Structure formats: structure tokens, C-alpha cells
């Protein structure tokens, strides 16, 4: 694994454009947003500051941040028409499909009609996504039509308050904020690349983000945090985890939450969210799921030199905060929207339609025979 070359299928190792937003696997801890190390941002900034950074290129000063947060606060509620649409989506729908529909529908009723509105569209989605997820979830699962506004200062706290219907603890607010920072941006990953391809046709922001949500949904990308949770919940102890994982590897099954397309030895986000997962486990007074997760990490490294990516310890961390597993990937959407929108803006600022070539491997030229002879 460690010496595996970044080349081959899946466009691996090929540069597909330029970005000033992010480096992955290069300097410092291995992940930077506009020059800032992600661990520095996680320790010393908030998610709203990171969103501002990605959208504007610089961190805000206090006055800019206050103004930005005040503006986001006024945009958290959903239009009634969108609430009606969300109520029509069945309980057993995949919440990523809910996010996709919510984003797409908002693009119908509040369209981005020209690119001068790109910040407006991005900020509206940023403010509204927690309510899109929670309004649908609470209506279909608890039978309540929630008030989509809260006076929570941060988007992370706002999400937790909408979901649980009560004020979150300071520690939970902090973990959500860190999590949103860690997931915010990651260069040319599959969903961001989807957004950029869409942007390159000069399409609108809502279409770019809707497409990106579809790409993030898959278990090889954002969907891995849910799949990791489903897996660790099946293990009864650290020892059982090791036995069962050995079986999975023998059967050549993919272990979700491990490995990465770019990082070779570790994902710098893992150490940060792992630390928070441990703190939450201790706070809950039951560390068994955390201990099982650590056993998985040890086993995968010892047997395959595969390491936890950002998704693996997010699973237990979210679980400890009482977040239902099916909402794990939609939270990723609430965060990555910032990276997607920033890339859409960057693509638009220096655009050429993205249209690669393919190596043809199909049949030689041939003639259509009459249907009766086929
Ligand atoms: C936030 C994020 O989106 S992070 C990614 C989340 N996705 C997951 O956690 C899904 C599980 N992981 C994977 O499927 C892969 O590691 C990916 C999709 C992330 C990266 O895929 P690739 O770039 O093709 O992986 P890479 O080239 O490093 O794979 C090397 C070998 O390790 C194997 N491998 C990689 N990850 C895993 C895994 N999680 N479980 C089992 N085997 C694995 C591959 O099958 C490959 O074996 P091979 O050479 O015999 O075919
Ligand atoms: O970069 C990738 O391929 C996947 C990833 O970790 C992310 O999008 O956060």
C-alpha cells in the first residue's frame, strides 16, 4: 500500500486543473485550505470562518465574521413550498436523496439567475442544509413539523438543536464544529470534480451542488462513514472485530473508512476526529465502541498497511452524539458544500469546458444489419 504509485485508472495522479483552495498530501499535516493547515484551523478557527475563507480567499476579521454569521442566521429557515416537498419524501428514502432533492428544489424557487449571485446561492445552501435534513427527518421519523430556526450561534450547534429539539452541550457543539471544518474541502475529490465539471458548462450553482451530492452519496466516498458505523456495530469486542475483519479481507471485501486515493500513510483528519471520538466515549461512560474502532485501526494497519480515512472515527463520534447513522453522510454535505461552491466559483473565474478524451476499446467499424438477420 504505502509504496503504491499514484497512477493508473481513475485518472489517478493526473492533474486535471489548478486550484488555490487546497493541497492534499503535500505539506505540513498533509491538508491545507488556502495555505492554512487543517489542524491549525480545527484548533483556532470555527467552521463559519473556514466557509468565509473558502468563499473569499482570506479569513475574516471579527467585524466581517459577525456580519457573515448574522447574515447566515437570517437564511436558516426554509420556504413553505420546500417544507411541503420534504414532507412528501417517504421515511425510508435515503437521506442523501432528500438532500439532493432539497438542493434541487431550492434551485427552482430561488434560482441563481446569473453568476453575480454565486455567493448568495452558496450561503443560502450553507444556511439551509441543516434544516433541509432535519425538517424531513423529524417529520418522517417523529411526526413533528419543527421550527427551522434556532438561536444557536454556530451552524454545527444549529444542526444539533434542530435534530434533538434541545440545546446541545458545549462539547457537542465543539465536536460538530471541528467535524464540519475537517470535511469542508479536499481538492479534486470525486464530488468536487463533479461540481467542477458541471460548472465548466456554465451551469448554475444548484445544479453543480446537486450533482456533487450524488457523487458523495456512494460508499467509496462520503457514504463510507455510514458503512463504517454499520460495520463496527456488528463487532461485539475488539477481539471479535479482528476476527471478523480478517474474514472480510479473506473474502476480498472492502473495509469502509480505510484507505485513500491520495494519502499513502495516513489521513491527517483521522487523528483529530479520533481524539474527539475518545473524549465523547469517555463522556458517555462507555468506551466499548471506541475500543472496537481502535482495534479495527490496529488490525488494518498490521495486516494491510491500510489506515483510517476521515470517515472511520467520524462514525463513532457522531454515534456518541446521538446522531442517527443515516444522517452521517448528509452532515458531510452540510460541510462540503463550502468546498464545492468555492470550486465552482474558482472554475468559473478561469473556465474552459472540461471535456477529456477516451481511449476507444470497442468493436471495429461495422454496418447495421436488417433486424430480421440479427
Ligand atoms: C472522505 C472520503 O471520501 S475518504 C474515502 C472513503 N471511502 C472509503 O472508506 C471506502 C473504502 N476505501 C476504498 O474503497 C479505497 O481505499 C478508496 C476508494 C478510498 C481509494 O481507492 P484506490 O485509490 O483505488 O485505492 P488504492 O489504489 O490505494 O488501493 C490499493 C489496494 O488496496 C486495496 N484497498 C484499498 N482500500 C481498501 C479497503 N478499504 N479495504 C480493503 N482493501 C482496500 C485495494 O483494493 C487495492 O488492492 P489491489 O491493488 O489488490 O486492487
Ligand atoms: O479526496 C478524496 O478522494 C476523498 C476525500 O477524502 C474527501 O473528499 O474528503
UniProtKB/TrEMBL annotation:
The keyword Acyltransferase applies. It catalyses: oxaloacetate + acetyl-CoA + H2O = citrate + CoA + H(+); propanoyl-CoA + oxaloacetate + H2O = (2S,3S)-2-methylcitrate + CoA + H(+). Keywords: Acyltransferase, Transferase, Tricarboxylic acid cycle. The active site is at residues 260, 311. Pfam families: Citrate_synt. It comes from the Bacteria. One of its GO terms (cellular component) is cytoplasm. GO terms for biological process: carbohydrate metabolic process; propionate metabolic process, methylcitrate cycle; tricarboxylic acid cycle. InterPro entries: 2-MeCitrate/Citrate_synth_II, Citrate_synth-like_lrg_a-sub, Citrate_synth-like_sm_a-sub, Citrate_synthase, Citrate_synthase_AS, Citrate_synthase_bac-typ, Citrate_synthase_sf. Coiled coil: none annotated. GO terms for molecular function: 2-methylcitrate synthase activity; citrate synthase activity. Pathway: Carbohydrate metabolism; tricarboxylic acid cycle; isocitrate from oxaloacetate: step 1/2; Organic acid metabolism; propanoate degradation. Belongs to the citrate synthase family. This is Citrate synthase. The lineage of its organism: Bacteria, Pseudomonadati, Pseudomonadota, Gammaproteobacteria, Alteromonadales. The gene is prpC.
Amino acid at each position: 500500500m504505502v509504496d503504491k504509485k499514484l497512477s493508473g485508472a481513475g485518472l489517478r495522479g493526473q492533474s486535471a486543473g489548478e486550484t488555490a483552495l487546497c493541497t492534499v498530501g503535500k505539506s505540513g499535516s498533509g491538508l491545507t485550505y488556502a495555505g492554512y493547515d487543517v489542524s491549525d484551523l480545527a484548533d483556532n478557527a470555527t467552521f463559519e470562518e473556514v466557509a468565509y475563507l473558502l468563499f473569499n480567499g482570506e479569513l475574516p476579521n471579527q467585524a466581517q465574521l459577525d456580519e457573515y454569521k448574522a447574515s447566515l442566521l437570517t437564511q436558516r429557515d426554509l420556504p413553505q413550498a420546500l417544507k411541503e416537498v420534504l414532507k412528501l419524501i417517504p421515511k425510508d428514502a435515503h437521506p442523501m436523496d432528500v438532500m439532493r432533492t432539497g438542493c434541487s428544489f431550492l434551485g427552482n424557487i430561488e434560482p441563481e439567475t446569473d453568476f453575480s449571485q454565486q455567493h448568495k446561492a452558496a450561503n443560502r445552501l450553507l444556511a439551509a442544509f441543516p434544516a433541509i435534513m432535519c425538517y424531513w427527518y423529524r417529520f418522517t421519523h417523529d411526526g413533528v413539523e419543527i421550527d427551522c430556526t434556532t438561536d444557536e450561534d454556530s451552524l454545527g450547534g444549529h444542526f444539533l438543536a434542530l435534530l434533538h429539539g434541545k440545546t446541545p452541550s458545549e462539547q457537542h457543539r465543539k465536536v460538530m464544529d471541528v467535524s464540519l471544518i475537517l470535511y469542508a474541502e479536499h481538492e479534486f475529490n470525486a464530488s468536487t470534480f463533479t461540481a467542477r465539471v458541471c460548472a465548466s458548462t456554465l451551469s448554475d450553482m444548484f445544479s453543480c451542488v446537486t450533482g456533487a451530492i450524488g457523487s458523495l452519496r456512494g460508499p467509496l466516498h462520503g457514504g463510507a462513514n455510514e458503512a463504517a458505523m454499520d460495520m463496527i456495530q456488528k463487532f461485539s469486542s475488539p477481539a471479535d472485530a479482528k476476527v471478523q475483519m480478517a474474514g472480510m479481507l479473506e473474502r476480498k471485501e472492502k473495509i469502509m473508512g480505510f484507505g485513500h486515493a491520495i494519502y499513502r500513510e495516513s489521513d491527517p483528519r483521522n487523528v483529530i476526529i479520533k481524539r474527539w471520538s475518545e473524549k465523547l466515549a469517555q463522556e458517555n461512560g462507555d468506551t466499548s465502541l471506541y475500543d472496537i474502532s481502535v482495534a479495527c485501526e490496529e488490525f488494518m494497519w498490521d495486516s494491510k498497511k491500510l489506515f483510517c480515512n476521515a470517515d472511520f472515527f467520524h462514525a463513532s463520534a457522531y454515534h456518541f452524539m446521538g446522531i442517527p447513522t443515516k444522517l452521517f453522510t448528509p452532515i458531510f454535505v452540510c460541510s462540503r458544500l463550502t468546498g464545492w461552491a468555492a470550486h465552482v466559483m474558482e472554475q468559473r473565474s478561469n473556465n474552459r469546458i472540461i471535456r477529456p478524451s477516451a481511449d476507444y476499446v470497442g468493436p471495429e467499424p461495422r454496418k447495421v444489419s436488417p433486424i430480421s438477420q440479427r
